[in-house]
Amino acid sequence: MPADRALSIIPHDARRPTEAVLIVDAQPTPTDAAADLARRVASDLEYLCLPPPNWPAAVPGPDGKPMLDVLVIGAGMCGIAAAAALIFKGVRNIAVIDANPDGREGPWVTYARMETLRSPKHLPGPALGIPSLTFRSWYEATQGREAWDALYKIPNAIWQDYLTWLKRALALPVRNGVAAMRLEPGGGHVTALLSDGTALRARRVVVATGRPGTGGNSLPEWVAPELWPDRAAHTADDIDFAALRGKRIAVVGGGASAWDNAATALEAGAAQVTMYVRRPVLPQVNKGRGSATPGYFEGWGALDPAQRWEMLAYMNDVQSPPPHETVFRTIRHDAFALRLGTPVLGASRDGAGVALRLAHGTETADFLILGTGFAIDLGRDALLGPLGTRLATWADRYAPPPALRRDELGRFPWLGPAFELTEREPGADPDLPRIHLFNHAATLSLGAIASDIPGVNAGAERLAGGIVRQLFREDYTVMHERLVAFAEPELIDTPFFAL
Length: 499
Known about the structure:
Shape: globular
CATH superfamily of the largest domain: FAD/NAD(P)-binding domain
CATH topology of the largest domain: FAD/NAD(P)-binding domain
């Protein structure tokens, strides 16, 4: 009997009170609960007949061997959700690759430097409607119900552990340590050239590369390139905070990541952290939380282009405030200073430090951290860059009224209903739509269902359903032949059996 299992002593028989027996407490240990969860996952999937048999046709590639039906690039949260949704729909001839080591996919234990997730703990995660696959089920199984009740928000590393468990519980075919370098659509498929010198061919490719996956870090033009790598970094970079101990740090930007990095630098012993924010007042309301509803997730793509543009332009204009937990984490340090209404106009090397040009003079720091977000610029993306002149963007398809002109929105790709790229010139690149962007670049076309926790289930279902429809249409001849060949007799042993 495990030593950590709770025990109670009760009389065995009222007529013999001196005898007693040990009764195991009904509260299971986390180890027992984890094993129970594994059985429950298996049972839930069996009850739902998941996953069904693979049904798409075996389509040969140029070498005569069957190609993958789908290659998923990225094994983070969205890649896991995409792969699972496809498998649950019987598209099982897939592969998932990620450049990062196992357990370090996505931002959660790398450049996401908040202490906890922004999202509330009760969101199910990429569970695709199956209760036993939710974050809560996993957390209660591994930590216990009391720990769940006491949990305020989810620590980053715990969320990463959950995603790693989910990947393994679903036996997803993930290959770590290999990156996709370039995509080449053509010949009825897409060729992915990999970092190990090999190539994979697939009928469809899903690009699930997160927020930085379609343009990388947004770096203002006023930052001198010679500041890198020893005097400047972006918040998404691998920053050696220990080396910043005793240094004066300038942080540009007032968003959540800027505050996270300011707090991390202070906790590492920075002598001073000064944050420069162009707004005179921080945003006060998280509009993203106000739009995290099924209506937005399912209905965004049904809006006309003008409505989608107007909605995202508004949300980008008002921005979201940093979480109050992050603000308190930062301001508890006396060495923190916030400079509201102070845009930085230039940053250059100044001896051993950094000179910041402001509207009313110059200030210096030892190191600069840019909390300036991520760019949507497909031409800068190594994976899609060569296709940049061939795919359609919103600037190619929609002209907003002058008051709503936002150049950064015009760079978003114009995607089809299954997150697929579209051709700038119809008919010029018929295989371009075989690439599906299941990341932040889909926001303007389809809503926030391919980058954030609240909408990931809706996004994965939309993606998988669209790919299923496309594969089935392509495989019509094989589907018809299989239907004609299907000959399972129903009336055996009845008087009307005719064979």
